[in-house]
Amino acid sequence: MSIPSHHRTRLDHASEVAEDYVEAIADAIDRSGVCRAVDLVSHFEVTHATVNNTISRLQRDGLVHTEPYQPIQLTAAGRRLAVKSRQRHEIVKSFLRKLGVSEQTAAIDSEGIEHHVSKQTLAAMKRILKNGWPENHENG
């Protein structure tokens, strides 16, 4: 039984914020060794209250661990999600570049597409990046 597309889109949106946050936390940790709420406020251009509420949800969901006035740490599950999100992002961005999309546009577009691309479509993108276009592919 397949899920209606609007239901899948709703599910995608529900995980989008978590994926964006764990990816940003991982990036901050990779860059400077720690991630603090202020880093996320700056990155997402949102209020401290928004970051604090989101971090509370991520902690409840087992993706991050933090204590008051301490850096934000990813749990093992949070690290796995960050890696998966980064990989999906890079595949989509690379695929868009292969299509001839500019670096800047591919970077912007991949931010949204990465959250909504199905496993089947992502696998097809990976195949094309690895093996090139199939023989029967029509170019426009």
CATH topology call: Arc Repressor Mutant, subunit A
Overall average pLDDT: 89
Strand count, sense and barrel status of the largest sheet are: 2 strands, antiparallel
Main sheet strand line-up: 1-2
Tell me, briefly, the overall form: elongated
Task: Give an account of the 3D structure.
With 140 residues, the chain is mainly α. It has one domain (5-131): Winged helix-like DNA-binding domain superfamily/Winged helix DNA-binding domain (Arc Repressor Mutant, subunit A). 69% of the residues lie in helices and 3% in strands. The protein has 6 helices and 2 strands. A two-stranded antiparallel sheet has the order 1-2. Helix 1 packs across helix 4. The longest helix has 28 residues, at 5-32. The protein is elongated. The mean pLDDT is 89.
Question: What's this entry about, in short?
Answer:
The chain has 140 residues and is mainly α.
Element layout with pairings:
Blueprint: H1 5-32, H2 37-44, H3 48-60, E1 64-65, E2 73-74, H4 76-98, H5 103-113, H6 119-131
Antiparallel strand pairs: 1-2
InterPro entries: DtxR_MntR_Metal-Reg (IPR050536), Fe_dep_repressor (IPR001367), Fe_dep_repressor_sf (IPR036421), HTH_DTXR (IPR022687), Iron_dep_repressor (IPR022689), WH-like_DNA-bd_sf (IPR036388), WH_DNA-bd_sf (IPR036390)
Domain HTH dtxR-type: 14-75
Protein name: Transcriptional regulator MntR
